[in-house]
Structures are given as structure tokens and as C-alpha cells.
Write a structure and sequence with these properties.
Two copies of one chain form a homodimer. By secondary structure, chain A is α/β, with parallel strands linked by helices. The first copy, chain A, has two domains: 2-56 and 324-424, Aspartate Aminotransferase, domain 1; 83-320, Type I PLP-dependent aspartate aminotransferase-like (Major domain) (Aspartate Aminotransferase, domain 2, 3-Layer(aba) Sandwich). In chain A, 38% of the residues lie in helices and 13% in strands. The first copy, chain A, contains 13 helices and 13 strands. Chain A has helices at 9-26, 58-70, 76-82, 85-98, 111-126, 147-160, 177-180, 206-215, 235-238, 312-323, 325-347, 374-383, 407-424; strands at residues 44-45, 105-108, 138-142, 163-167, 188-194, 219-223, 242-245, 259-263, 353-354, 366-370, 386-387, 389-391, 395-399. In chain A, helix 8 links the parallel strand 5 and strand 6 (219-223). The radius of gyration of chain A is 23 Å and the shape is globular. Chains A, B: Its cofactor is pyridoxal 5'-phosphate.
């Protein structure tokens, strides 16, 4: 009868529900929940960091785009508005979320393709591929970094005859300056790190680590997939060299919307990306015999920009701008703090572990909790309209997109995990 | 008074108009024109080979996708329908337009990025980069090929330490077996050619040229951008090795919709593409320490597939399937034949030259005409809702997308060119 050791769900639930409702009532961004499309049958959407929800205006905006910009203006829209959309949208992302001046950010391709371009370009610019002794021949990457970052860095290292060097931070605390001390050296060309860890949610100190990498004479590439639109940044002030980020998470661009890349202005003349398609050429319509890259951030383009996939995020950027990143972050902290408290009270007694930092200053917009039964639990929850994310081998990730998630919704999710665990265990 | 040498516009116009109307009345695909969205103010859209028109169902399909698949099913749609969309849509393109069996075609990225992947992979598979004497170290490309093909081939050749060798065909007739004789050798690794030339519309003999390249022991990559959805193909029967094509032209996928790639089944185990992102991994969600590519065509993926940009083309593929590629080609030939006759009668007297093959068997779905004033003429026409494409330095390209263009519309375009030229010359 060890079940009796578990606190009574009803009392705990009621107290947490009161707390959630009080937090929602005091939330200055609560009204923004109405900006998102309703999702019939969804009790709790806790995966906004895998796929952000569409804003309510998006269906008609896409339809109007097809009728007017594409269907009526037709090819003329390239001249009228699409040609510079990759830069305009990049500048908008930079202004609203990155703390970066114009002319350094561009929207294109996927995160993986942009990582390839910038890891290649950055490693080649900073290092001397297959060079003599003393050359910078190492790409440093965290062993817990997102797979595509690691896979692509490994591929580039092999291509350029460079070595991959692994950083091994604490998986919950995430990468720190101390972790980099043993690996940085005069051989380091490029360091590839995530601003927010995709599993633990650990938030790296971008300013301190960037300064440390620069002291070693190397460049750093930041993966912003799990921070863009959730954690305020000052890329320019912090001296970031290169960055790549995702627009379908906290920027709500829709499934497979293109990625963005940032290259610090004074590095732009030193890099050369490998996929030299016509959109990166100095004169795109000259169609001359030889390739010459255009100067500036536009050199990162390759093929025709994916216009249709660049539309939905624009409404979200407007909403974030209206709220302000400081307020977005404050709500994000409130949501994850509350999720940690609720998990402590409701889930810890069932053996669920917190796999994220307890200190909100060390955390991004999601938390991860662990239990051996979470794969089966996630499957059951999805069928019931409670939608967290499962991360192999035993993690449930609660991605609490600040503008589209309430405290009460967060609690519904945590309670549903408890109920599913209880069912699963018997 | 040399103007009097020009045939009276009125009589010629009237005769051609009768002919156009008779051809439209006899056109078995004429009713399909109604499947496309109306474009208010557009008199003649003659640029379907730069950006195909949206089908009338597309605005609501995109809106419903946002409301339901994205907005309500949310992240669950990846499991339910999006995960294998790149292959399913690739197979559909293969079945409807390419004459290729399933499992060899995938939708991803842009044409430029897929060209990079396949030129890299094909050159490396066929050649021996920077190898000893006797190795295959040459990439052969046509000097008039589309810029992105040439630029990317040049970049890959430099990366791999290979040489770029130029084919120099007649610019109107396009590349033939005879043109390749002097350049193919035991040093040839990969040949990169367009099926339909982006300027002249010249149609290459894919079967004969592929056999010739194979006789030389090399591989061939076909750029299908200007033929997919317009010219019937039998990629499997013709023995094509690699191919890349565009979906925003005759497949009406919308601005910047992703490209497709074809890799012959028995080559798939021999190639390795360079951008080894997580979507190309053997087990995408294992997120293990080391990269291992998945077998089959899915190895060409890198990042998250651009789902939103993959929707519009599906309606067009259904329409092409309903019409059948043979009927689409028959109408395409009728349209370009009529455009050539109209240009001969209406424009040749003003000094306009035909820059495309006269024999329809040697031509794809567009023709190009030349005159020194065409840049200014195009600008004027666009303002009037007559929309051809200008190609530097003096070409107007008439892209006659078979399912969305009528003979009468084609004639309106040709007559408008004449009228604009007449105005411009005075």
C-alpha cells in the first residue's frame, strides 16, 4: 500500500490551481493568448519549442498572399517585395529578438544547411585546414549539442581535414566557462555551442563564453534555436561571431519554416560559404560566366528564398515586438518556475526527476523531467490532447512558449502526466 | 516612311485571333484553365516557367492546413503525415512527371542546395578527387547552363580539387551528342546538363546523351527545372543517374517552393551527400553520439522539411495527372508553335529574332525572342498586365505553361510586344 505515501492529488491540485489562476490573472501578457488560433480538443500544448502555434491571423494572411501577392501580382512580386525579404525579415528578427543591428542577419534554408554554411565558413576563416603545425585545426563542440550541430560539424571537420574536439559539461547545468578551459588552445579554430540546451534547457552565458573563446583567438558559432524569441539577447554587445537559429519554435513560423543566420559585420568580408548559388552572386541577373559573391550578409543565400514559408513568422514577430522581449522572458521565467514547483509537488513523489537547472537564471524557456515510463506516458497524453515532447530515452520536455501558454494550461499538463503515470504503473 | 513596310496590324491580328480561338476551341485541356485562380488586371501571363500560377483551391487549402494540420494537430502532424512527406511528394512527382519508380525522388531544400549535394556526391562517387594520373578529375558543364548550376559546379570542383570542363553548344540548338564528343574522356567524372535550356528552350536528347556519358564511364546529372511538368520524361528507362528540378515553375508550388532530387536506385549506396543533418540520419530521434546516414533517397535530407511550401504543388500534380503528361506536351507544342507563327507574322517585321529552335521536337515549353529594346518593352508590358520574362541582354521569354495558358492569351502577349515596340521606337 505504498500508494498512500503519495500526497492526495485533490488537495495539491486545488492549491496549485489557485496559484496558477492567480499567476494568470497577474500576467501582463495574458491577453496575448487570444492572438493564437484555437486548437479544438487540445487540453495543454506544451511543445511550443518544437512547433509554435499559429497566430489566428495566419490562415487568412496565407490565403490573401496566394490570391494577391502570388496569384495576381505574379512574378512582379519578386521586384515589388520578395527580392529583399530574406534580409528584411532577418533584420526584423535581429531587432525584435537578437539585439543585433541591421545587415547581419538573413533568413534562408534550414538550420542544418545554415549550420553547414557557417561552420564551413567559420572554420575555414579562423583556421588553416590541414595546415602546418601551429595552425588552428580544431572545431570544438559540446557532446550534448543537438545532433544536427554535431553531425554537421563532424562532416565539415572531415571535409577540411580538421579535428573535432568535445566539450563535456554537466548535462543539467550545461556548458560553462570552466568546461571550455581544458579544450581551448592555439589550435582552436571554431567553437560551436547552443545558447539554450535542447534537452535540459540550460542557458549558457553567451557574453562570458564568447569573450573566453576570443581570448583563445578563435571564433564562436551560437545555435539559437531554443532561445530566439524566448530569451533576450545582445549579440552585438556580447561580441558573437556567427549564429544560426530556428523560426518554427518560439517564432511560430510553421512546420519547416526557414532558419536564420547572423554574421558579425566585420567578419562578413572574411567568410566564404560553400553553396555559391545564383542568389549569392554579386549581380544575380547578369548570369555571367564566372561567380563573384555579393558583399554583406546576402552572400549566405544560395537558391530562391522560400517566400511562402516566410510569412507566418511575421505576425509572431509583431506580437513579440508589442510585448517586448523583457516581458516575454519574465513570463517565461514565471511559467518554468511554476512548472518546477508543480513537478516537485505532483510528480516528484512518483519518482520523476527534474533534469533542468532549478535556478531560472540558468534556464531557457523549457524544462525537462525524467521517468522510465515517459515514452508510454507521452503516447497516451498525445491521444488525450495533452501534448508535451518526448526526448529519448526517458525525458518529457515541457516547452512553455511564453505568449501562447498559461500557468493553468501548464498545470493541466503536469497533472495529466501524473494521472498517466498512475495508470501506466498499474 | 518605312513604317509602311510593316504589315497592317489589324488584318494580321484578326487572322491570328481566329486561329487562336479555333485552337482553343479544339484544345482538350481548355477547361483546365478554370482550375487556376483568376488574376484581375492580368491580360497575358507568359512567365509560367518562372513562377507558375496558383490553382484556385490553394488559398483555402493553405488556410485549412494552418487551422487543422498545424493549428490543431500541432506537433502530432509530424507523426501523422509530415514525416514522410518529402518521399511521398517525391514519389508523386516521379510518377506524374518523371517516369521514375518510387524510392528515387525526394523534395527538399532549393534547386541550388540540391545541386550542391548531388554535384558533390556524384563527382566524388564517379571520380577520385585530387587523385593520381588516370583518375576521373573533371566535371563537365555547358557554358550556357543556368548560372546556379555553373557557379555551384565551379565551387565543388575547387573544393574537390577537380577541373571544370566547358561544353560549348550552339546557343539556339542546345547541347547535342556531337558537342560532347570532344570533351568526354577517361578523365570525366560527372556531366551536368539542363534538359531544357533556360534561355532558348532547346530540349536535349536525354536518352542519347546519357548513353554517351555512360559509354565514357562517367555519371550525368540532369537539371530538370524547365522540363518537369512540361516535357514528358522516362528517367528510369533513359538511365539517368542524378537529377534536380524545380517545383515553382510548371509544378506551380509557389514562390520559393522546395526542389526535388532524383538518384537512380542502384547509385544510392554509392553516394554520400555533404550536409549530414539529423533528417538524413539512420535513426533521427536516437540523437546518438555519431552520425550514420539512412539508406535510400532519404539520405539527401538535411534539416526539417519545409512543409508549408510543399502544399500548393500537390493540387497541380493532381491536375497534371488528370490531364496526362502526353496531353500536356501536345498542348505545350501547340502553344509554342502558335507563338512562333505569331512572332513570325507580327514581330519579325520589326526586327525581332527567334532565339529558340523552330522544330518543336527540339523545344521545351517556352520560346525566346530577341530585340535590343526588350528591356524597356518588358518594363512597359508589366505595367499593363502583360507579363513575359526579360532575359539579359535583349531576350523576351514567353513561358507558356500548358495547363494555365490559352492560345488567345499567347496572342495578346505577342501583339502587346508589337505595340510596345512600336511605341518605344518613336
Amino acid at each position: 500500500m505504498s500508494d498512500h505515501a503519495v500526497p492526495s492529488p485533490t488537495d495539491t491540485d486545488a492549491a496549485l490551481l489557485s496559484e496558477a489562476r492567480a499567476l494568470d490573472a497577474a500576467d501582463p501578457l495574458h491577453a496575448h493568448l487570444d492572438a493564437f488560433l484555437e486548437a479544438p480538443g487540445v487540453q495543454a500544448y506544451l511543445d511550443g519549442n518544437s512547433l509554435g502555434r499559429p497566430l489566428a491571423v495566419v490562415p487568412e494572411r496565407l490565403a490573401a498572399f496566394v490570391r494577391e501577392d502570388w496569384g495576381t501580382r505574379l512574378i512582379r512580386s519578386w521586384d515589388e517585395q520578395w527580392m529583399d525579404l530574406p534580409e528584411r525579415l532577418g533584420d526584423r528578427i535581429a531587432e525584435v529578438t537578437l539585439g543585433a543591428a541591421p545587415g547581419q542577419t538573413i533568413v534562408a534554408d534550414s538550420t542544418s544547411v545554415l549550420l553547414y554554411k557557417l561552420i564551413r565558413a567559420g572554420a575555414a576563416a579562423a583556421g588553416a585546414p590541414a595546415g602546418p603545425d601551429g595552425a588552428r585545426t580544431e572545431i570544438v563542440i559540446e557532446e550534448g549539442n543537438f545532433p544536427t550541430d554535431r553531425f554537421i560539424a563532424a562532416g565539415v571537420a572531415a571535409e577540411l581535414g580538421m579535428d573535432l574536439v568535445w566539450v563535456q559539461p554537466d548535462p543539467v547545468r550545461g556548458v560553462t566557462v570552466d568546461d571550455l578551459v581544458p579544450v581551448l588552445s592555439a589550435r582552436t579554430a571554431l567553437v560551436v555551442l547552443s545558447h539554450v540546451d535542447y534537452r535540459s534547457g540550460a542557458l549558457a552565458d553567451m557574453a562570458a563564453i564568447t569573450a573566453q573563446v576570443h581570448d583563445a583567438g578563435a571564433l564562436v558559432l551560437w545555435d539559437l534555436c531554443h532561445s530566439a524569441g524566448s530569451v533576450p539577447m545582445q549579440l552585438d554587445a556580447w561580441g558573437a561571431d556567427l549564429a544560426v537559429g530556428c523560426t518554427y519554435k518560439y517564432l511560430n513560423g510553421g512546420p519547416g519554416s526557414p532558419a536564420f543566420a547572423y554574421v558579425r559585420r566585420d567578419l562578413q568580408a572574411q567568410i566564404r560559404q560553400p553553396i555559391q548559388g545564383w542568389w549569392s552572386a554579386a549581380d544575380i541577373f547578369a548570369m555571367g560566366p564566372r561567380y563573384a559573391p555579393t558583399p554583406g550578409i546576402r552572400q549566405l543565400l544560395s537558391g530562391t528564398p522560400p517566400v511562402t514559408s516566410m510569412l507566418a513568422m511575421q505576425a509572431m514577430l509583431d506580437l513579440i515586438a508589442e510585448a517586448g522581449m523583457a516581458a516575454v522572458r519574465a513570463k517565461s521565467v514565471s511559467l518554468t518556475d511554476f512548472a518546477v514547483r508543480a513537478a516537485d509537488e505532483v510528480l516528484a513523489p512518483l519518482g520523476v526527476r527534474l533534469l533542468s537547472p532549478r535556478d531560472s537564471a540558468l534556464r531557457g524557456g523549457h524544462i525537462t523531467i525524467g521517468h522510465p515510463e515517459f515514452q508510454a506516458v507521452t503516447q497516451r497524453l498525445w491521444g488525450e490532447g495533452v501534448i508535451p515532447d518526448f526526448r529519448f530515452p526517458d525525458g518529457i520536455r515541457l516547452g512553455l512558449s511564453p505568449l501562447s501558454t498559461s500557468h493553468e494550461e501548464t498545470l493541466r499538463g503536469v497533472v495529466a502526466v501524473r494521472d498517466a503515470l498512475a495508470l501506466g504503473g498499474r
